[in-house]
Amino acid sequence: MRPRYPTPPDGYTPISTSAVMTFLRCGYRYWMEKEKGNPVTARMARGTALSRAAETDNRAKMAGEEKHPDELIEVARSSFSSELPAMQDKGTTILKTKASLPQAVLAWVRDLSPGIGGVTLAEKPLVGLFHEERIVLCGTPDFFANNCVRDVKTGRRWRPDDVHTSVQLTTYSWLHLLHVGTMPTAVAVDSIHRDRHGRWIGETLWSSRTPEDLQSLWETVKSVVRGIQKGVALPADPTSWHCSAAWCPLFWECPHVGDARKRAAKDREK
Ligand code: SF4
């Protein structure tokens, strides 16, 4: 299996962008996922599946080829199926989510793919070192394209504020600075989601980052690493989107989720 991040220099603490994000959202989940491997929900697996289809599409474009949408749907289906053993949802939720893959892929093909041409794909984790704190931070942005950093998100509709405040995009901007030599001129989320009529669409939301944003990133990462070193395991805000059956694979067994929330989540799944 591919390591989640490269071997750090001696005496450095390695941490991935996704680990930073998980710890910020829920310290309890961070520790439980370390114990249980990487459980996922069907919606998380669908997000990965769409990223794999987008990668395949762009790799073909860079080689001067074109993939038929059916081939991209097959890539998404295969990625989704490979995550079945790790899925924590009920069978009906998995089936419904799998059934939505073709429409989500077609939204990528129709609304997003034409605007992303000739990109450079980050094929392996990019690494940055905080020498002062002896921290290695790494991440794998979906695309570095024309001096922009872009990330594909599927399922939840992103709002402009989400893009302005995303720690993940700030991290990728820093990695862009280290690996390309400049701050990206823009950062974006390519969001694939259903509109209010239930139709799958793709939408790009733009923002930017300045060197001042990096200062706050370093403070955040330092706090996360210190929290991990001290074993902090605070639960998530129960009203946040990620503390839900759809987006947290530990929801059904989590001691921080009361019976009333579990009943409400079951009702929603019917
Ligand atoms: S259900 Fe909420 S509190 Fe429990 S692990 Fe998941 S995100 Fe954390």
Protein described:
The chain has helices spanning 17-25, 27-36, 42-62, 69-82, 91-99, 101-112, 160-165, 167-180, 211-229, 259-269; strands at 13-16, 120-121, 126-130, 135-139, 143-145, 148-155, 186-194, 200-207. It is α/β, with parallel strands linked by helices. The strands form two sheets. The chain has a five-stranded mixed β-sheet. β7 (186-194) and β8 form a beta hairpin. α3 (42-62) packs across α4, α3 crosses α6 and α4 packs across α6. The model has no long low-confidence stretch (mean pLDDT 90). Iron/sulfur cluster binds at residues 26, 28-29, 235-236, 242-243, 248, 250-251, 254, 256-257.
Task: Jot down its keywords.
270 residues, alpha/beta, Lambda Exonuclease, Chain A, 5-stranded mixed beta sheet, 3-stranded mixed beta sheet, 10 helices, binds iron/sulfur cluster
